[in-house]
Amino acid sequence: MRERFVDIFDLVKAYPNPFGEDIRVVDGFDLKVKEGEFVGVIGHSGCGKSTVLNMVAGLIPSSEGSIVVGEKEVIGPGPDRAVVFQAPCLLPWMTSFENVLLGVKQCYPHGTPDERKQIVEHSLGVVGLQDSMFKYPREMSGGMQQRVGIARAIALKPKMLLLDEPFGRLDSLTRMDLQDVILDVLNREKITTMMITHDVDEAVYMCDKICMMTNGPGAKVGKLLRIDYARPRNRQQMMIEDKYFHYRENLLTFLEDCEKQKETLKAIRS
Amino acid sequence: MSEKRSDQIKYSILKFLDVTGFTVLDPVIRLIFREETDKQCKAIGKFLVVPILFLFFCLTMWWKIAPQHKTKSGEVPTPDKVWNSAKINHTFDYRETTKSEDFIARSESRKEILKQVQAQIVSIRSEAEQAKNQVLLMEEKFKNDFLPSKLEVPNTNLSNYLTEVNILSNRRKEELNVLKAEVMNGKTTKKEFVHFLEEQDKLVDQEKKILKELRSVISEIRSQKFKPLEKARSVYNNLANELQFLKKREEFLTKSNRSVRVQEANDKLQLSIEDLELATTEKDIYLRAKKVIRQKESIARLEGQQYASAVTVYKQIKRSIFTVLCGFLMAAIIAIPLGIMCGLNKVVMACLTPFISVFKPVSPVVWLLIFQIIVGAFFPDPETHPFFLFFSSIPYIGSLNINPALVFSACTVAICAVWPALVNTALGVSSIDKDHINVARVLRLGFKDRLFKIIIPSSLPYVFAGLRISLGVGWMVLIAAEALSSSDGLGKFVWDEYQNGSSYSFANIIYACFVVGIIGFCLDRIMIVLQRIVSFDGGTTSV
């Protein structure tokens, strides 16, 4: 197991403002992730969490710094870093099977149609959609669509899985179901994962390590928190233990402090 | 179980109505299947009965108002006249097709048809004679009973008034003579004489005016229509037309029939060949051999002959639809790839924008003239040009008489229809969901996959919306182009009727107006259905 499987070093993202000055949205973001580790990124909305994830995915270029995933520097997007977006982003003119197959074809260009079919069926089975393989996205609920999104990501056999608030648009019951679906998959496949979230409970339940981001502009890693629970985890069991509340407390205090800082900054400015 | 089945049928019908855009009929279907009867009845009342009543209201208004406006081409036709002209056009087409079928009928079937036709002629002839008698009877009645009874009062008035006027004018003449004498004697002054003359002139004018009015009243009565007579005449005319048609058929089944004529020519040829055998001198042999060759040629020509049918509305419709589809196809073939390129690449867009903005507003008439010149130059001799020979050899299309006029009409349609499709396609491609693009990037799809799996499917609804507008525009442009260029088609039909100026022309024009409208509606509906089928989100489109 490599200690620095993902190495994000001094990452900066700057956008020019109307006066031509650079606004550094993310400034000096440093993070190291072990192979197979599940790291969560938490922070207030608008602090630049998604920007970091998009840079890791290669969807937007970074201004400074470097990102290395599995000894390869990130230059552009690619199927080795599969993304599950906040919206399911399925292609509405394709069935869930075809949606997953689209990616599989890219990753296994030399596979026979039968092999591809098996991979698609397997990954749809993992997320519990054996019976809805030939349904169109419009015929499925939001939760089911997101399951297809997850299946599409894991079917790529990625080196890293990037989850961009994957449960943001789901109701709390579906959300819990899907959290378990993802944890199941990860327990089996051991994929290095980075998840954006702003739900404290979700972060504690799912992650091995939580990276708290300070408020932007100039957001960076404020604090790292290691979550010491053995996997597979049990939601009820975790809640009973004292450290659960300790972790929660920790996260909430950090977020509140960030908010206070922001308020004071505002007060100073005005 | 049976209930479930009927539910299935119901929902499939409702789905069909939804896709075709006839949602107005939705409550009727639901009512048939006994679903919330009250609600459906209310919906039918609001959205079906009221519009139909309004339609009837409009028809009656048309009926009332139309005859009040007299034009150079007669009264504005009422709905019944338009309907009548539709029927006449239909019969005309039926007769033309029957005749052309008769012309090529052969042997046994020819004899059978001939028998039927002759039987019909016998029965119709007697009917026609009866109808003629009826007409004569009615004419008598019109002259002897109808006119006198109507004319009585104004006639007596007029004659009374005429005698009165005569007496008055004689009296005035006497007075005038007296006055003349008095002026000479100096009994009355010349001033008074002038005054008297003026008074007289005024009286004469007044009398003339009254007489004119009376005469116009009488002439109006004379021109009044006697309904039974009109009816008898129209019955007789119909029968006479039918009879004429049947006689023509008889002719086409006997002496003008193709197979009969070929047979005759063959017989003659046989005689000539025998003659040739008998010939002895060199000159005779040469001349007779020549004759045989000539006859053989003429037989070959006869065998290929077709009935020269008159152009009926239905043929015009077929040709117009064919032309518009050709033009539309050309427009689609040009617009869709260009539109995709525009949407994908801003440079292409920048290159094409000036052309789009300048040429889009150009009137179809200008395009028509330009294409008329250009196409004309391409086909200096259309009769023998391989392009047209090729089209004429295709079975169904060949009968549509493909000529340069059709080509430039289609080109005009294409150039006018290209813009909406082009602009919409470009818009559709450039407004693809950013998430879908991101998916493509993460999967590292190649250009081909990106184009066919993401870009084209996601812009299809826009493309079809554009094509739908294009087809509508094309149809409108085509009718105008045909009218202007006298290219065969519905537009020419309208133009011919306008130039014709017979008693049916105006009704025919309005009939054509409805035909054009209904066909345009059908084309639009077909496009709506296509659009609904390709739109993946199942979204509704405006009707």
What does this protein structure show overall?
The complex is a heterodimer of chains A (270) and B (543). Chain A is an alpha/beta fold. Chain A has a domain at 81-157. Chain A is 40% helix and 23% strand. Chain A is built from eight helices and ten strands. In chain A, α2 (96-107) runs parallel beside α4 (142-155) and α4 (142-155) packs parallel to α5. Chain B folds into four domains: 2-68, no CATH class; 108-239, no CATH class; 257-303; 313-534, MetI-like fold (Orthogonal Bundle). Helix content of chain B is 83%, strand content 1%. Chain B contains 19 helices and two strands. In chain B, strands 1-2 form a two-stranded antiparallel sheet. Chain B is extended, with a radius of gyration of 37 Å. Chain B starts with a helix and ends in a 9-residue tail after the last helix. At the A-B interface, β6 and α2 of A face α16 and α17 of B.
Number of helices of chain A: 8
Strand content of chain A: 15-25%
SSE order of chain A, one letter for each helix or strand: EEEHEEEHHHEHEHEEHH
Oligomer: heterodimer
Q: What structural category arises from helix and sheet content of chain B?
A: mainly alpha
- In total, how many domains does the architecture of chain B comprise? 4
Uncertain regions spanning at least 5 consecutive residues of chain A: none
Helix content of chain A: 40-55%
Q: Catalogue the unreliable spans of chain B.
A: 539-543
CA distance, first residue to last residue of chain B? 37 Å
* C-alpha Rg of chain A (nearest Å): 19 Å
Rg of chain B, rounded, reads: 37 Å
Terminal Cα span of chain A: 51 Å
Shape of chain A: globular
How are helices and strands ordered from N to C of chain B? HHHEEHHHHHHHHHHHHHHHH
Strand content of chain B: under 5%
Mean pLDDT of chain B: 87
